[in-house]
Structures are given as C-alpha cells and as structure tokens.
Specification:
Aminopeptidase; seven-stranded mixed β-sheet; 7 strands; binds coenzyme A
Length: about 140
Amino acid sequence: MSTPFTVSLVSWHDGEPLLRAIREAVFIREQNVPEELEWDGQDEGSRHALVLSLNGDAIGCGRILPNGHIGRMAVLPQWRKQKVGTAIMEALLEEARSRGYKQVDIDAQTFAIPFYHNFGFVEHGKEFMDAGMPHKKMKLKFSPP
Ligand SMILES: CC(C)(COP(=O)(O)OP(=O)(O)OC[C@H]1O[C@@H](n2cnc3c(N)ncnc32)[C@H](O)[C@@H]1OP(=O)(O)O)[C@@H](O)C(=O)NCCC(=O)NCCS
C-alpha cells in the first residue's frame, strides 16, 4: 500500500504559511514553546521538509541548517506513529548527504531519543534544558560511500 502522504523539500519563502501552521500547533500551542524561541531567525537560511496528506493538509515538517543541524521536527498529533516523522528525517538526511556533509546533529527532546536511534543518531554530552524541556545532543556520522 502506498503511504497516504507526500514529503517534499521547500524553501522558507515557498513553504512559510504551512510550516508556520504546523509549528504553531505543535511547539507553541501543544508544547508551550515561547514564540520568540520558536521563530529564531534561522528559517530563511534552512531547507525545510514539508509533509502533505493526500487531501493537501500540512501534517509534518522539519528543517536542516547550513551547518548540518537538524531540528523543528513536528508531526500533528493525529498523524503520529504513522511514519510521517521517519519520512521527514529520511528527506533531511538525503539532503545532508547530497550536500556532502560528513555528519549531522540534533538537539533531541529526551522522550524522542528512541526515534532518532532508528536512524543511527548517538547521544553526546549531558542532558540540558531548552524551552523548559529536557534535551540531549545527538550526532549521526555518515559512513563514506
Ligand atoms: C518526534 C515525532 C516527530 C515523531 O514523529 P512520528 O511521525 O510519530 O514518528 P514515526 O511514526 O516515524 O516513528 C517511527 C519510530 O520512532 C519511534 N518513536 C516515535 N515516536 C516515539 C515516542 N514518542 N517515543 C518513543 N519512540 C518513538 C518508534 O520506534 C517508532 O516506530 P513504531 O511506531 O513502529 O513504534 C513526533 O512525535 C512529534 O512531532 N512530536 C512532537 C514534537 C516534538 O517533540 N518534536 C521533536 C523534538 S526533538
């Protein structure tokens, strides 16, 4: 069976309203992240993964910065545990590899560490707080082709 969603890579310029709607729902309303932390000025320079359901609703997103930092991974609650997050991460990792990056990193909320293990990310350093939530830095080194 084909997946009931599509993932694409977009610029902030092209995807802003849809990307904003997902992140407002997930980070600002659900997780109570302050707006000034969420909109950190790094979106314009990032490449964004955007997932649309088959009827065109925006249901998930994530971004990669020019330095290989992946973040802002968000899937709407009713779409979780259906591999939408996996599709977002696969698209971002493909982008990183195509740019020739040797590694990528992420600041993982501790509950999501098992999700990132699935792609080979490894924890580094101590737990820290960001936007009031516990996080750990994780890194994924790409093996040479
Ligand atoms: C983290 C998040 C992006 C995962 O998206 P998702 O679409 O639900 O993930 P997937 O369906 O692709 O999950 C694949 C696997 O990752 C693991 N996983 C996913 N969510 C998990 C969770 N909450 N706890 C533990 N493992 C999890 C599981 O192994 C899962 O496989 P399974 O469904 O067969 O058990 C999503 O839960 C989310 O948007 N959370 C709120 C925002 C957030 O906290 N973002 C991450 C900040 S670091």
